[in-house]
């Protein structure tokens, strides 16, 4: 029997908010509505697909540009801090267009009373992360707000990268039949933040997966595999990333739950708290849509890189139920994997 998922919806109430709520920044439906109905009309509409970065032609070269802000709380967490997260996250947005990052800018909103020693550690980690990634910090700005009007520091970055000739990657290029691969275990960053913020232990230490992914992307491109789409599943997790791709490309997506690499500690935390690992944020993973015939070649290439050694094939794109993501469960059933309306874990990046 063929199941029609196209009309499967949750009967949520109409969302009518007269003021900004935390959920508007969580990467879910509220974030999408804010962009679609407020910012895009004000800015004259989209000037291309809403991907991780924008592409512009400059003197015959294609330049990828991305701007991001980081407001994570706490500033320091297992596996990293807001500084290196800002560098890695911006590099990853550039890399998801197939671009090689070349330079970054950074601005800082500092709260009065923040210890200079703490700010120094964050700045040093940013410089170290940029150096390790082979990019340079070329410009910046600082502002200070009154005590009690910030969480120590907020960081905004802009990244620039060059797209190699012949590379055309974006969410609009995903197509039915594509194999879907994730580069490694999911959910680590969100659970690492939660464990520190709430003081919860999950039986095993969980550290953030924050990492710059452009080296892995270069390895993937060098394999000659026909890559159509790349996405780093940050806010909203794998579920949000897949739903955005399905909606943009107007394809259906079917994933197999048992094939998704979920660390035991992440699974345990989600079971304890009633969360879905597919909604948990990541900061060092990517999702790739690739021609089905090239999937094994790409997997082999990814597993030669330290950030892709646990890469796994998790599903396929389909012509069925366009715009809808479904998961095949461990007992053989099917469920719709939707995007959250608001926030599940606030302030994770």
UniProtKB/TrEMBL annotation:
Domain PurM-like C-terminal span(s) in chain numbering: 175-321
One Pfam family it belongs to: AIRS
Gene3D superfamilies: PurM-like C-terminal domain, PurM-like, N-terminal domain
Residue ranges occupied by any PurM-like N-terminal domain in the UniProt entry: 52-163
Gene Ontology terms describing biological process: protein maturation
InterPro entries assigned to the protein according to its UniProt record, in alphabetical order: HypE, PurM-like_C_dom, PurM-like_C_sf, PurM-like_N, PurM-like_N_sf
Family: Belongs to the HypE family.
PANTHER family registered for this protein in UniProt: CARBAMOYL DEHYDRATASE HYPE, HYDROGENASE ISOENZYMES FORMATION PROTEIN HYPE
NCBIfam families: hypE
Name of the protein in question: Hydrogenase expression/formation protein HypE
Organism: Chloroflexus aggregans (strain MD-66 / DSM 9485)
């Amino acid at each position: 029997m063929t199941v029609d998922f196209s009309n499967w919806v949750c009967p949520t109430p109409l969302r009518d908010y007269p003021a900004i709520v935390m959920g508007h920044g969580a990467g879910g439906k509220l974030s999408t509505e804010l962009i679609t109905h407020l910012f895009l009309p004000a800015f004259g509409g989209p000037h291309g697909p809403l991907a991780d970065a924008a592409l512009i032609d400059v003197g015959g070269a294609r330049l990828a540009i991305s701007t991001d802000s980081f407001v994570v709380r706490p500033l320091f967490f297992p596996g990293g801090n807001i500084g290196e997260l800002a560098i890695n996250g911006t590099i990853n947005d550039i890399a998801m267009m197939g671009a090689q990052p070349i330079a970054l800018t950074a601005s800082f909103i500092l709260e009065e009373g923040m210890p200079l020693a703490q700010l120094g550690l964050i700045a040093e980690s940013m410089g170290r992360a940029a150096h390790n990634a082979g990019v340079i910090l070329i410009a910046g700005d600082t502002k200070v707000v009154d005590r009690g009007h910030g969480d120590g520091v907020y960081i905004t970055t802009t990244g620039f990268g060059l797209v190699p000739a012949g590379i055309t990657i974006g969410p609009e290029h995903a197509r039915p039949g594509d194999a879907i691969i994730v580069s490694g275990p999911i959910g680590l960053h969100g659970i690492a933040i939660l464990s520190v913020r709430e003081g919860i232990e999950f039986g095993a230490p969980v550290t953030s997966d924050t990492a710059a992914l452009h080296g892995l992307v270069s390895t993937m491109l060098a394999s000659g595999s026909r890559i159509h789409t790349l996405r780093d599943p940050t806010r909203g997790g794998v579920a949000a990333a897949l739903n955005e791709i399905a909606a943009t490309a107007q394809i259906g997506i079917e994933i197999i739950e048992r094939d998704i690499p979920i660390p035991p500690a992440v699974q345990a935390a989600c079971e304890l708290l009633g969360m879905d690992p597919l909604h948990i944020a990541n900061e060092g993973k990517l999702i790739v849509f690739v021609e089905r015939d090239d999937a094994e070649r790409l997997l082999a290439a990814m597993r030669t890189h330290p950030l892709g050694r646990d890469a796994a094939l998790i599903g396929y794109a389909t012509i069925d139920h366009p715009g809808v993501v479904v998961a095949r469960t461990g007992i053989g059933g099917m469920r719709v994997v939707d995007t959250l309306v608001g926030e599940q874990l606030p302030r994770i990046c």
